[in-house]
Specification:
The complex is a heterodimer of chains A (about 210) and B (about 650).
Chain A (H helix, E strand, L loop, with lengths): L2 E6 L2 E6 L4 H7 L23 E6 L2 E6 L10 E3 L3 H17 L4 H9 L33 H9 L5 E4 L6 E4 L1 H7 L14 H12 L1
Helix pairs in contact in A: 2-3
Chain B lengths: L6 H15 L3 E6 L2 H4 L3 H14 L6 E6 L11 E4 L3 E3 L7 H10 L9 E2 L5 E2 L6 H4 L17 H6 L4 H9 L2 H11 L11 H10 L6 E6 L8 H8 L1 H15 L3 E7 L3 H16 L15 E7 L8 H8 L23 E5 H13 L1 H5 L9 E8 L5 E6 L4 H8 L9 E6 L5 E4 L9 H6 L8 E6 L4 H15 L5 H18 L7 H15 L3 H5 L2 H19 L12 E5 L9 H5 L5 E4 L2 E5 L9 H5 L7 E5 L23
Parallel strand pairs in B: 1-2, 7-8, 7-10, 8-9, 11-15
Antiparallel strand pairs in B: 1-3, 3-4, 5-6, 11-12, 13-14, 13-15, 16-19, 17-18
Helix pairs in contact in B: 7-11, 7-14, 8-9, 8-11, 10-11, 10-12, 11-14, 18-19, 18-22, 19-20, 20-22
Chain lengths: ~210, ~650
């Protein structure tokens, strides 16, 4: 593995080829917020909080640092205006969906948001939103549990169903009944604590 | 059928087919999905029976073909060699056409196309809808029974494949496509040759080539019609591409919702296999290639290349977050080259006629032709193939025949839900990948939805966002949550609850959805909103500030009112109101009960124009109703004098 040098926030950072920007940054003590990242799992690129700006001459581009591989001489800005502005909005969007959730509140405070400010949720349009009506949730759909079960445990006892705003995490009873009682390793991964309660619910139903 | 083992075999077969058909007249009848909705099946059968009955079976060939393009007038027929065209056929028209045109060589006047000035047009090529088109890709549809490979071969089909496999090296084929600057017809406009080269040069023995036939834009159906009507052109292009790239396995990802396309494609694959045009040792060249048809389960996002490839692998079609191109690491992490149906169908033409011929058509940056599905508020709906560089105005007014009912043009949505609405002032923009992108829209796969003055752009933006909210896979936050919040705001605006600042919030969310989304679905999702804000901001303001819908579409912002001075108490609206919201009686002024009214607009439509008593109000208060029992002020007619 050859070594590459990149510049993150004006700081020279050494990294190994094949690493992602996120890995390189964290190894140098530079923090980048993430919600769906876990070092044991394949990068998922879904929460988009880890987006950073990479600069090439006059052009710059936003990339997900959990996936983007390091290059020699790459210039990275992890807290540029574009990045922080976007992160704020992402956090606000997640806040609207999962208001009471700890990691979102924590990041929210860091990026200066205290609730749903810009979106100004003053009610849903009445007639046409019925099919999209969603209730506030504790699940932020980071997929850590789903991916852990699939990638590490290779059980697929838990997965996503639905799409768009209707996406949710469910246990598949046929598999879960058999595998989950003795495992429950995904519980500790859940950043919001939504999962144990969900599972408890499922178990209670049986 | 015997296997073809060389270019000579192919040529011999072609001559044989041509000799068999020599001197025969061809009656080509549209029988694609659009035709079938108007009983084209019965029309075809009627012609077959009638030709038999009138003893012409050995002189006339009745062909059931795919769509010819002019969907508005289907089922239609073109009689060759004269190219006499009859439109809007019914089964009972068959005897007359057979006896008059096929036997007596006379024209059946009443079945001809009639233009705006009342002129009857005999030949297909003179119909304004076709006159301005250059149908180099789509034009063969009318000469091909898609279930019969011989028709395609008779037109010189598979000669490009023979040329590529037997006379050219893969490098030469690649070079030719690169020189032609063929850009992806699926929407992105990425140069196909460069993509091919990437896959070709990518490490790995096994490589794949894929046809993207997951056409999902509302109102777009050119890929379907091409696959239905001329599946071999797509297949030939695919095999040529595979040869250039060094792939031996292809996939055709086609939507399950296109049953006829799936069926015709399967037949085409079988027949090509039988003739040795597919499988091992194609045309005796030593090149092997197989194709699998993968039927998509109807997710718009699966048209995105990485999602499509994930779906082919057998998993849920969700885009991948990787920054490595699918051309390098696609299906099962092997180099995979994906192109759209139309792109593949263009390849044989380039190989046969050369890149110089191809680059002679089109603009500086966009070469060749593009097929559009011209739909919406336009007189001639259908599929049109035009050279790049033709202006939108020419497409909509010269080919499309303008807006029906004397209404005014308002805008045209290109690129489906990922595109934007282009207003009247920019209608002289040429059809070109880069020009359309500059306007905040995009070429897309070729949907072109025309809107007239009765269209509310806020409502249209809401419609597209609603589509995208349903079709987002929900994986990444900006697309899943951002589109949802934007849709909520648009709904509020349309329902009369918009607030100052909403437009700015829409812009702010749009920016993040565009820049932070995982795939192109999210990245282009704000286009319908941003383009309407850019070109029609005043309409948003009218909705928000004046609670007024200028086009009179948003129900929450309109009311219907019967002007008492004009009402003649004819009882028509009263009887037609589906909710019984109109009060009145004989000789009594009719009044709409605003509480009960559902704003369906029936009264507005049925009120006789000579009275013109019902008005649609928006942004204005409904005047106090007249007292119940007020008698009408009769128009002075002879009777009362």
């Amino acid at each position: 593995m050859s070594e590459v040098t990149l510049i993150i926030n004006d700081e020279e950072v050494k990294a190994e080829e094949g690493m992602t920007i996120l890995e390189a940054a964290r190894s140098a003590g530079i923090s980048i917020p993430t919600l769906c990242y876990h070092e044991k799992l394949a990068p998922y690129g879904a929460c988009r909080l880890c987006m950073v700006e990479i600069v090439r001459g006059p052009q710059s581009r936003l990339v997900a640092s959990c996936v983007y591989p390091v290059e020699d001489g790459l210039i990275v800005k992890t807290e540029s205006d574009r990045v922080t502005k976007g992160r704020k909005m992402l956090l606000e969007l997640m806040w609207a969906r999962a208001p009471g959730v700890q990691p979102i509140r924590e990041y929210g405070i860091k990026y200066g948001i205290t609730g749903v400010q810009v979106i100004r949720d003053y009610g849903v349009g009445r007639k046409n939103m019925a099919k999209f009506e969603i209730e506030p949730s504790f699940c932020i759909l980071c997929g850590l549990c789903v991916r852990y079960c699939a990638e590490i445990k290779k059980e697929n006892a838990i997965g996503f169903v639905g799409r768009g705003i209707g996406r949710e995490v469910v246990f598949f009873p046929e598999i879960a009944r058999r595998t989950c009682p003795g495992c429950q390793e995904c519980f500790s991964l859940c950043p919001t604590g939504a999962l144990p309660s969900h599972y408890g619910l499922v178990e209670a139903c049986h | 059928m015997p296997r073809l083992n060389s270019a000579i075999d192919l040529e011999r077969l072609k001559q044989e087919i041509l000799t068999r058909a020599d001197g025969k007249r061809i009656v080509s009848i549209t029988n694609g999905t659009d035709g079938k909705t108007r009983h084209s099946e019965a029309v075809v059968q009627a012609f077959i029976d009638e030709v038999e009955k009138q003893g012409l079976a050995d002189k006339v060939i009745v062909k059931s073909t795919g769509c010819h393009g002019f969907c508005e007038k289907e089922p239609s027929t073109v009689i060759f060699p004269e190219e006499i065209c009859y439109v809007s056929l019914k089964p009972e028209d068959a005897p007359e056409i057979v006896s008059a045109t096929l036997i007596e060589n006379k024209i059946v006047d009443h079945l001809l196309y009639v233009d705006d000035d009342g002129n009857k047009i005999v030949h297909e090529s003179e119909i304004p809808f076709y006159k301005y088109q250059s149908r180099i890709v789509f034009g063969n549809n009318r000469l091909i029974d898609p279930k019969n490979i011989e028709d395609y071969i008779a037109l010189g089909g598979y000669t490009a494949l023979a040329k590529a496999l037997l006379e050219m090296t893969p490098e030469q084929v690649l070079e030719e496509v690169k020189k032609a600057n063929l850009r992806g017809r699926g929407g992105g406009g990425f140069p196909a040759g460069i993509k091919w080269e990437t896959t070709r040069n990518a490490p790995g023995e096994i490589k794949y080539v894929i046809v993207n036939a997951d056409e999902g834009d509302p109102g777009a159906y050119m890929d379907r019609s091409l696959l239905e009507g001329n599946p071999h052109s797509v297949l030939e292009g695919l095999i040529i591409g595979a040869y250039a790239i060094g792939s031996h396995q292809g996939f055709i990802y086609v939507r399950q919702e296109y049953p006829i396309a799936v069926q015709n494609l399967s037949v085409a694959l079988e027949q090509a296999q039988e003739l040795g045009l597919l499988g091992s040792n194609i045309l005796g060249s030593g090149f092997d290639f197989d194709v699998k048809v993968h039927r998509g389960a109807g997710a718009f996002v699966s048209g995105e290349s990485s999602a499509l490839m994930t779906a082919i692998e057998g998993r849920v079609g969700e885009p991948r977050p990787k920054y490595i191109r699918t051309a390098v690491s696609g299906i099962w992490e092997r180099p995979s080259n994906l192109n759209n149906v139309e792109t593949w169908a263009t390849v044989p033409l380039i190989i046969n006629k050369g890149s110089e011929w191809f680059t002679g058509i089109g603009t500086e940056g966009s070469k060749g032709t593009k097929i559009f599905s011209l739909v919406g508020k336009v007189n001639n709906t259908g599929l049109v193939e035009v050279p790049m560089g033709m202006t939108l105005r020419e497409v909509i007014f010269d080919i499309g025949g303008g807006i029906p009912g004397g209404k005014k043009f308002k805008g045209v949505q290109t690129g489906g839900p990922s595109g934007g609405i282009i207003p009247e002032s920019l209608l002289d923009t040429p059809v070109d990948f880069d020009e359309l992108t500059k306007l905040g829209s995009m070429m897309g796969s070729g949907g072109m939805i025309v809107m007239d003055e009765d269209t509310c752009v806020v409502d249209v933006a809401r419609y597209f966002l609603n589509f995208l909210a349903e079709e987002s896979c929900g994986k990444c936050v900006p697309c899943r949550e951002g589109i949802y919040q934007m849709l909520k705001i648009l709904n509020r605006i349309c329902e009369g609850e918009g607030r100052e600042g909403d437009v700015e919030v829409l812009e702010e969310i749009s920016e993040v959805v565009r820049d932070f989304s995982l795939c192109a679905l999210g990245a282009t999702a704000p286009n319908p909103v941003l383009s309407t804000i850019k070109y029609f901001r005043d309409e948003y303001e009218a909705h928000i500030k004046e609670r007024r819908c200028p086009a009179g579409v948003c129900k929450a912002l309109i009311s219907y009112y019967i002007e008492p001075e004009k009402c003649q108490a004819c009882l028509i609206c009263l009887r037609n109101c589906p909710v019984g919201a109109i009060i009145g009686g004989k000789n009594l002024v009719h009044v709409i009960d605003q509480e009960k009214c559902t704003k369906c607009g029936t009264c507005f439509e049925v009120c006789p124009p000579r009275f013109d008593a019902v008005t649609r109000l928006s942004g204005a208060k409904v005047p106090e109703p007249v007292l119940a029992g007020t008698e009408v002020a009769r128009k002075r007619g002879k009777k009362n004098e």
